[in-house]
Design brief:
This protein is mainly alpha-helical and 157 residues long. It has one domain. 66% of the residues lie in helices and 4% in strands. Strands 1-2 form a two-stranded antiparallel ribbon. Helix 4 packs across helix 5. The radius of gyration is 17 Å and the shape is globular. The chain starts with 11 loop residues before the first strand and ends in a 6-residue tail after the last helix.
Length: 157
């Protein structure tokens, strides 16, 4: 059976409201980068991180974009920054960064092979791991702050 050739990476596959915090932050940064370059991506990161953390994440994202820019198989399709839909390319990229950050190296390498030439798989995965770890720390900090806020004034027993 032949598959339709009109499928593209921009087709909606999910909703931003249903994404895990790490994946949603990856997609926000990717959309910013796609629309306005490093400056726009940095704005998206600063909204959720300290200045130092955002700068470190941005350095890793620049490495990631550098590898993608020279070895990608095709450009990643992105939705507008405020769009509630998540495109197929965005979801795959977010899953790739998440796998790399959380130590699922084999999965991350496999997903990287779909995005770049063989010579760039390791470099892309390493950059994604660094980028994803910065974002993961930010989401953990958000979760801890939310948990602490819920405990204030709450009777546990």
């Amino acid at each position: 059976m032949k598959h339709a050739r009109d499928l593209s990476g921009e087709l909606p596959v999910a909703d931003m409201r249903g994404m895990q915090p790490l994946a949603a932050l990856v997609i926000a940064a990717l959309r910013g980068w796609n629309r306005g370059g490093a400056g726009a991506a940095l704005v998206a990161l600063r909204a959720r991180m300290s200045e130092g953390q955002a700068a470190a994440a941005m350095a890793a994202m620049c490495d990631l974009a550098g590898v993608l820019g020279t070895a990608r198989r095709r450009p990643l399709a992105c939705h507008a920054p405020d769009c509630p839909c998540v495109g197929a390319d965005e979801a795959a990229f977010a899953r790739f960064v998440q796998a790399a950050a959380l130590g699922e190296r084999e999965d991350a390498l496999l997903l990287a092979s779909l995005m770049v030439d063989a010579r760039a798989i390791i470099a892309l995965t390493d950059a994604a791991q660094r980028f994803g770890l910065h974002l993961h720390r930010a989401t953990l900090r958000d979760r801890a702050a939310l948990t602490a806020a819920c405990r204030v004034g709450t009777t546990l027993h």
